[in-house]
Specification:
By secondary structure, the chain is an alpha+beta fold. Helix content is about 40%, strand content about 25%. It is built from four helices and six strands, in the order ααββββαββα.
Length: about 150
């Protein structure tokens, strides 16, 4: 499967995960992150990600975005789905941490998709490179500790 096909497959998987979340709990405003806030905090910790366009979701309170990567923090952007060394990625912003946890559990069973959970946000990365895994693992662990 080419990179564009993989990007489409990850976006479809993200939409399916969001649609499968039937339990919608009241948000906890002090602990919820928007897509922009998550990317800003993750990038401060060195994640090197860029928020792409919002995708359609069957859940009104759930946002799904494509995510692009940068070669290094502060470098030029690599467009989501481009035919480069990294896999495609999606960001799911749920209305609660509990709903995000349910999506993370479903995502975490996928073989080629690496999943990250922070507050009410799940980052899904399809077939990440070893460098991307190391960078995201380190950055998002820092975000979770902070």
């Amino acid at each position: 499967m080419n990179r564009l096909g993989r990007a489409f497959a990850v976006a479809i998987a993200a939409a399916a995960l969001a649609a499968a979340a039937t339990l919608v709990l009241r948000p906890e405003p002090e602990s919820l992150l928007s897509a922009d806030a998550f990317v800003a905090v993750a990038n401060e910790a060195g994640a090197g990600i860029e928020l792409g366009p919002r995708l359609a979701s069957s859940e009104a309170e759930t946002e799904i975005h494509t995510v692009g990567f940068t070669d290094a923090v502060g470098a030029d952007s690599i467009a989501p789905g481009s035919d480069l060394a990294h896999g495609a990625a999606s960001l799911i912003v749920s209305p609660s941490a509990e709903a995000a946890g349910e999506q993370y559990e479903r995502c975490d069973t996928a073989i080629t998709i690496r999943c990250y959970l922070t507050a009410n946000v799940v980052l899904l990365v399809d077939s990440p490179t070893a460098d991307e895994v190391a960078r995201l693992d380190t950055a998002l662990a820092t975000v979770d500790e902070g």
